[in-house]
Amino acid sequence: MDKIVVENLKYKYPLTDKLVLNDISFKIEKGQFIGIIGQNGAGKSTLCQAITGLVPLFFKGAYGGRVLVDGIEVAKSNISDISLKVGMVFQNPFTQVTGSKLTVYEEVAFGLENIGLNREEMKNRIDEALNLLGIYRFKDRNPFDLSGGQMQRLAIAGIIAMQPDVIILDEPTSQLDPQGSEEVFKAVWDLKKRGITIIMVEHKMEKIAEYSDKVLLMHDGKVIDFDTPEKIFSRDDLMQYGVIEPAYTRICKAFDIKDSGLYPVTLDRACEMVVKYNEHN
Amino acid sequence: MSIIEINNLHFSYTKDEEILKGINLIFDEKSTAIIGQNGAGKTTFVKLLKGLLKPTWGDVIIDGKNTKEYTVANLAPTIGLVFQNPNDQIFKNNVLSEVMFGPLNIGMDESKAKDSALKALKMVGLEEKINDNPYDLTLSERKLISIASIVAMNTKIIILDEPTIAQDYISKEKIKDIILKLKSQGKLVITITHDMDFVAETFERTLVFCEGRVLLDGKTDYVFMQDEELKKAHLEPPYAAQLCRKLNSDKIYITVEEFIKANKR
Ligand SMILES: Nc1ncnc2c1ncn2[C@@H]1O[C@H](COP(=O)(O)OP(=O)(O)OP(=O)(O)O)[C@@H](O)[C@H]1O
Ligand SMILES: Nc1ncnc2c1ncn2[C@@H]1O[C@H](COP(=O)(O)OP(=O)(O)O)[C@@H](O)[C@H]1O
Ligand SMILES: [Mg+2]
Ligand SMILES: [Mg+2]
Fold first, then answer.
1. Among the four residues A120, A220, B110, B163, which has the most C-beta atoms within 10 Å?
2. ipTM of the complex model
3. What is the Cα–Cα distance from B160 to B46, expressed in whole angstroms?
4. Quick one: which of A92, A86, A110, A91 has its CA closest to A100?
5. pLDDT-derived band of residue A31, with 50, 70 and 90 as boundaries?
6. CB-defined site of ligand 2, < 6 Å
7. Does the CB atom of residue B193 touch ligand 1 within 6 A?
8. What is the pTM of this model?
9. Which sequence spans correspond to the domains of chain A?
10. Any idea where the domains of chain B sit in the sequence?
């Protein structure tokens, strides 16, 4: 069965007249890693919120169509039920961190308190998540005394500790150093291997290309394409949607290095194909 | 004369941990990127330049003024800082008044401040949102407003702390153009970022911070060839350079454009 089904979804924020989601339909299978790309204002974050049910349960406004998670319609559920199943790391970590907790440890514990875990299990999960994100040594620190990147790591740790079935990450690595960013992609990839469904919004096309099973290209509230990274980044009209190919793809496009009509999108594949091209020319 | 001079700078927030461990630097008019791992001390360092924090030891001299002897207000006409988190900076409920606040605060008259604010908003592409409430705008737009607010003050030194957070390709190009334009006006632009390709495409000089010290300092293409040090600082070379390395090329190009240009025949 499909894990997530979005059918003819339409949405307009209150007090504005623009359809920020304009007839969106797609399906995601359990355990897939889906990348969402598109220019600023395309509707990526709003779509994520519609999958968590925040749209329309928290953000009111005109809503049409359906979003189903495990066959259950989110708009007809309540937020606390959905949040056990679908966790979301928000675009801005500064707003995700509640500020009501005194320490980094308590901040992560906050999300877990509603799940009804015993103390032991809770402590294990928190320690594991903090270690995974490399911030265990700050566990007694006030979250607001962290650097920006450390705070972003905390926001991700908080969701991973909850172990939901579906994890949505909205530009989760924008403030991470390059190695930290790679570590987050690897950690998320491990979760996917364990059957967790991943949806990630990112402007880092090289990473999206490397890790996604499929990429959803959005523009102006619509789905332009939903396909493999090779197919998406081989399109010749990406610029029209304010999107640029991964650096490796850009280089191969400049020399028309392709295979069965598709350009390489990862470092390894680009390297292979450039070597072959050099042998023949 | 050097615009900024840093002598043996040390800084700690608390007794148990020293954050900056002896930094000596001189900044001239070269556009400069600061890169380094999370927690390396980059934001702390630029807050010291702005005078928001004062050295625990050592001196920061901004355009001839030692920050220990001047208030933030004294220094504000010379040095502007765009914060990493726009929510720390934005507090007005109207975009135009937000952007006019800085210029008015350093003594520009009303009409000059408005003129300067409108120009800056146009530069970042938000001229149509002047009457909006910043809190209704998206993160990328709030970030652009905070950039406009500092640009409008027309200071000699402009520091951008992670300006490309949440920005798509088009806005990143716009920010790059703004940096080049400010540089052509003779300003010193210092930018913290984790986007290595953006650094390679935009800055003449690059500093690598690592655990409170400056690990590397030099021309950007030189810095991006020091693979060992970059690794130590939790960094990576730009993507084009990674491809060059993997291909065992003799020459390392740090931008896609250079790679393509050099290999076209
Ligand atoms: N108010 C504070 N109190 C105590 N420690 C702090 C405070 N602010 C920052 N720190 C610590 O100082 C160190 C340097 O922080 P800083 O914000 O300068 O890092 P940064 O290099 O800008 O990192 P990032 O890339 O994540 O933004 C970090 O380890 C951070 O946890
Ligand atoms: N709370 C809100 N109220 C009104 N309009 C909003 C709100 N949040 C986002 N929008 C608008 O909805 C559109 C899509 O925004 P968003 O989903 O944040 O896009 P993206 O994540 O792709 O940048 C934009 O035009 C944005 O200005
Ligand atoms: Mg968004
Ligand atoms: Mg910082």
1. B163
2. 0.93
3. 9
4. A110
5. very high
6. A 13, 16, 20, 38, 40-46; B 136, 138
7. no
8. 0.95
9. 246-281
10. 1-78+155-233, 92-153
Residue-wise pLDDT for B76-119, tens only, equals 999 999 999 888 888 888 999 999 999 999 999 999 999 999 99
Question: Which atom of ligand 1 lies nearest, measured to the CA of A138?
Answer: 31
CATH code for the structural domain at B1-78+155-233: 3.40.50.300
Q: Which of B11, B20, B38, B259 to mutate to test the interface with A (most CBs of A within 10 A)?
A: B38
Q: Which of B46, B42, B198 minimizes the C-alpha distance to A148?
A: B42
A210 pLDDT above the threshold of 70: yes
pLDDT number for residue B231: 97
Q: Whose CA is nearest to atom 6 of ligand 2?
A: A13
